[in-house]
Design goal:
This protein is mostly beta strands. It contains one helix and eight strands; from the N terminus they run αββββββββ. The protein is globular and about 35 Å long.
Length: 139
């Protein structure tokens, strides 16, 4: 009986741990369905961030962010922190931003796990308009 209880507790712990957004996610272009990069989502000082840790298209691996501004201008896209200052609010992560290196624009952002905990809903906002991508958890 003791072994069953321990097994049950381990399964619950694994289930709870797999329900957060932290880890690596394969970005999927919402228009083409193409996998573009791997973003590592992590917590730092109580806020959530996301950094590009792999560019999947070999022709784009050395790309520079020529549409970035400030200190990030002409820096490699690989290693760029694109999700910044997200704060957990219920099931959502909000009040931060997401940067799109392709158009050089920063958007308000909301992150949430989909019904499938291996799918992350990534929503960028301009005013009341938004675009949504669904990223897939990378194992």
């Amino acid at each position: 009986m003791k072994n069953i209880i321990i097994l049950f507790c381990c399964l619950i712990t694994c289930s709870v741990l797999s329900q957060d957004i932290y880890g690596q996610w394969k970005t999927i272009d919402d228009q083409t369905g193409e996998a573009k990069s791997i973003v590592d989502i992590y917590e730092e000082n109580g806020k959530t961030f996301g950094k590009i840790v792999e560019v999947l298209n070999p022709n784009d691996r050395d790309a520079l962010c020529n549409k970035c501004e400030g200190a990030e201008k002409d820096t490699p896209v690989l290693g760029l922190v694109i999700i910044k200052n997200m704060i957990k609010d219920g099931k959502y992560y909000k009040k931060g931003t997401i940067f799109d290196p392709q158009d050089g624009k920063t958007y308000k952002c909301r992150l949430a796990l989909d019904e499938d905990p291996n799918v992350l809903q990534v929503r960028g906002y301009v005013s009341f308009l938004y675009a949504t991508q669904y990223w897939v958890r990378e194992n």
